């Protein structure tokens, strides 16, 4: 066998071994039964007692269970939101934005809560220009808003809810720990080719660690088991903060405040600030400690006999009632 033939043989064997290794190590640990509803028609759903609509069947199921256990719309809505943070975290992350509209049947009133976060105090025009940016950069810590959803969750539970954070977060914790089936939306967002997965791992290493589990070589498979253990741990620590406050004699509202404080002033705040300090970010401890959303009167407009409500102009929902007036 001449030298060229040996080179080709070695190359062929190497490629074959790589292919076998790729097949073996990229296979999922298992699959879950799942009637994936995305991108197809669904039958009409009817109910006489209550109803839930959400972006994922597990979130809808969780909210229905909360209502069946005696919780109200506020409890069910928060439980569904936390499940969506698990099952669609790449689109609806915790702790992200959480615009809120709430209808209270007793007072026959709709309220809006500002759940958009706000820019950190360091995020000024001068700050970005001093770093050579004409526009706010993407894929950088300095583009992040102060997280809003923990504040929204606590504020809604305090004003209208009946359950504890521990109760409404438990379903999300279980799903995050045990896993859920990969659905078509997750496939669309995260099932990148190997070159994109490598780039994702280089440009956004933390995100890649969370969503790719450091396995840049492994593609996603429809209905395979997908877990979010670190998010489950975050939810569990927030619930533990509430439980600890109760053991020390706190009432329901003060115990819920402990959830908020653990996030905005406690260990989670420390981690956020540490990450921003290491990566030329903008969020400070003062920004987090002083952040609060607020209840407000919603925007509203008439459309025939109907009144359409939305959050105000801090989010895009305001376009709907405004456009319907044309």
From TrEMBL:
The organism that produces this protein has a lineage beginning with: Bacteria, Pseudomonadati, Spirochaetota, Spirochaetia, Leptospirales
Cell inner membrane found in the keyword field: no
GO: which molecular function terms? transferase activity
From which organism does this entry originate?
Leptospira ellisii
Record Pfam families: G_glu_transpept (PF01019)
Q: What is this protein called?
A: Gamma-glutamyltransferase
Which PANTHER family did the record assign?
GAMMA-GLUTAMYLTRANSPEPTIDASE (AFU_ORTHOLOGUE AFUA_4G13580) (PTHR43881)
Task: Give the domain of life.
Answer: Bacteria
Q: Which UniProt keywords apply?
A: Transferase
InterPro entries, per the entry: GGT-like_enzyme, Ntn_hydrolases_N
């Amino acid at each position: 066998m001449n030298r060229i033939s040996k080179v080709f043989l070695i190359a062929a064997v190497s490629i074959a071994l790589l292919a076998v290794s790729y097949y073996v190590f990229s296979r999922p640990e298992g699959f879950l039964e799942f009637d994936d509803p995305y991108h197809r028609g669904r039958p009409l759903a009817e109910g006489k007692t209550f109803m839930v609509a959400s972006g994922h069947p597990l979130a809808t199921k969780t909210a229905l269970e909360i209502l069946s256990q005696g919780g109200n719309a506020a409890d069910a809505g928060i439980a569904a939101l936390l499940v969506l943070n698990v099952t669609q975290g790449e689109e609806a992350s915790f702790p992200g934005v959480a615009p809120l509209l709430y209808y209270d049947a007793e007072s026959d009133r709709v309220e809006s809560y500002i759940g958009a976060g706000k820019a950190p105090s360091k995020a000024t025009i001068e700050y970005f220009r001093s770093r050579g940016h004409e526009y706010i950069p993407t894929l950088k810590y300095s583009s992040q808003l102060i997280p809003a959803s923990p504040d929204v969750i606590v504020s809604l539970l305090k004003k209208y809810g009946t359950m504890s954070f521990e109760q409404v977060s438990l379903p999300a914790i279980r799903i995050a720990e045990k896993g859920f089936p990969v659905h078509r939306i997750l496939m669309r967002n995260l099932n990148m080719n190997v070159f994109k997965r490598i780039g994702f791992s280089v440009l956004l290493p933390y995100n890649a660690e969370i969503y790719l589990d450091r396995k840049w070589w492994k593609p996603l498979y429809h209905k395979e088991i997908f877990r979010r253990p670190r998010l489950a741990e975050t939810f569990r620590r927030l619930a533990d903060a509430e439980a600890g406050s109760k053991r020390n004699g706190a009432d329901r509202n003060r115990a819920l405040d402990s959830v908020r404080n653990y996030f905005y002033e406690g260990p989670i705040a420390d981690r956020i600030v540490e990450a921003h300090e290491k990566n030329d970010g903008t969020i400070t401890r003062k920004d987090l400690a002083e952040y609060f959303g607020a209840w407000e009167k919603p925007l509203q407009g008439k459309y025939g006999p109907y009144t359409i409500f939305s959050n105000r102009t801090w989010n895009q929902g305001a376009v709907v009632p405004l456009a319907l007036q044309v």
